[in-house]
Amino acid sequence: MIVSHLLRYVFEPGFFGSGEVQVAFAVGTVIAVTSAVVGVFTVTRGQSFAGHSLGDISTTGGSGAFLLGVSQFWGYLVLGAAAAAFMELIGVQRRRGRDVATGVVLGAGTGLAALFLYLDTQSSSTTGVSFTILFGSLFAVTGSTAPALIASALLALGTVLVLARVLMLTSLSPDIAAARGVPVRAVGVAYLMALAVSVALSSMIIGAILSTALLIGPAATALRVARGPVRTMAVAAGIGVAAIWIGILLAYDSYYWPPAGRGWPVSFFVVTLTVGGYLISYLRPGPRDDRSRAAEPESPAEEEQVCSPA
Amino acid sequence: MAELLQVEGAGVRLGGRQILRDVSFGISPGEFTGLIGPNGAGKTTLLRVILGLQPVTSGSVLIDGSPRSARDASIGYVPQKLVIEPDMPLRVRDVVSLGVDGHKFGIRLPSRARRELVSDMLTAVGAQRYANARVGELSGGEQQRVMIAHALISRPRLLLLDEPLANLDISSEQGIVSLLARLARAERIAVLLSAHDMNPLLSVMDRIVYVAGGRVAVGSTDEVVQPQVLSRLYGQPVDVIRVRGRILVVAEGDTDLAAKAADIGVAG
């Protein structure tokens, strides 16, 4: 009795029957897995800033697409891919050039976004458009756009999984990878494109400027708590999916929270849950704190060698 | 003995500067060769040429008598100054496993045979104790062992190491040198190791390739590390001081003398 009462309190009536909720679950789950797995490589490759910037630049694509009357997703995607290609062209592959290249592209993109968002609000005389582009709307994903989103997500996820070993070897040492015949630059471009797709997708569901949260948050947490590439990707995907699922549930419930009758944005819950997960990971000592081993001598046998004259 | 690696009259010009000129030497299986020279002499460039990462502007580099092809598994490589972040999601065993097929595309399923191959390799380099640790958490010497295992697991016949002893404490340094000497003898692997200080290598080097001013002198340590030979190489008078079984190379007007002496424990 109490359990069913509690369940009914958590899952508001009509929750599982709602078409919007079903689409949100399907699309949200696939995108969360893709973002989290892509994010593991983004963090490992030290391209978090590039990932975040692609999200900000997506704003330009989303607001531009609205002006043209096409789906925001294509705007996010086209501009994200173009920005990624341009970053690569002007030096994202060099560690030092990377932040500069990213910063330059980011500045140019955000300037345009300001103009497009202004024009959007002028033409529609509502702030709803800006809000959707900047902060996303998982419940606004319709049954007709869902297949394109899911297909794009699976394409990006597949690309990164096929490149996984090569990306790890390149992160370890680009020189070793090149010496073994890996086309390091082409692999970097393919990866950036998968990143652009992934960012465009998360822009759709949690918003252009919040897309970083779903990309970096689960990955950063997984990198602190899991060992080994496969386990790290699995944990990141699990965290991303959990954040999306709980986020959808809370957003649906929040319809009855003050101010009653207008649900809170899903993005808020997803981002809060992701960041919360990262903070909780600090409760257990992570790799950064575990430095004791470095101070130990390698082995007793080698210590003896030091004492004997060379 | 047939030479595994032949460098013949190799020259490299980079950005209008002649980095290497007329470099010739060969390496046979099982030989331990030290690539010695001051910082900036062209040691890394020479290793990159052998790896095929840097094209020669003159001369040739032959492996087994033919030009090196990409994806050549006969060369293992340990690059210099590898900085592995603590949050790199690779365990030691993952890094060694990447030595087998890290250059290949596609998804790999776990296999028992590979696990055993990796474990055997880790045992061979004395790194089995930290097989499941994250590679970024290890000390410099431990990371070098792991990278050596990574380079060796594809069974190369030539192992190139770029300054593997830099920034190591003395016990790690001795451990790495004796490991490499053992591998060269037991597995018939040709080892070519670059270092700015030859002293840790004196007991194990079969041969020395001394680089200075873009040229090389090749031979046994006694043949090469002579005032006349090195003076010609450096293009200025150079003294060679042997003390307590160690060697100190001093150029005329070398303001660095005190530091060098302290380095090898003379001025103490």
Description:
The complex is a heterodimer of chains A (310) and B (268). With 310 residues, chain A is mainly α. Chain A has a single domain, classed as ABC transporter involved in vitamin B12 uptake, BtuC. Chain A contains 14 helices and no strands. The longest helix of chain A is centred in the middle third of the chain and has 30 residues, at 95-124. The radius of gyration of chain A is 22 Å and the shape is globular. The termini of chain A are far apart. Chain B is built from eight helices and twelve strands. The radius of gyration of chain B is 19 Å and the shape is globular. The termini of chain B are far apart. By secondary structure, chain B is an alpha/beta fold. In chain B, 42% of the residues are buried. Chain B has two domains: 1-74 and 156-236, P-loop containing nucleotide triphosphate hydrolases (Rossmann fold); 84-153, no CATH class. Classes of the chains: A mainly alpha (310), B alpha/beta (268). The interface between A and B is large, with 49 and 55 residues.
What is the CATH T-level topology of chain A?
A: ABC transporter involved in vitamin B12 uptake, BtuC
- Number of DSSP E strands of chain A: 0
Distance between the amino and carboxyl termini of chain A: 80 Å
Residue share in helix of chain B = 25-40%
> What oligomerization state is this entry in?
heterodimer
Taking all residues together, what is the mean pLDDT of chain A? 82
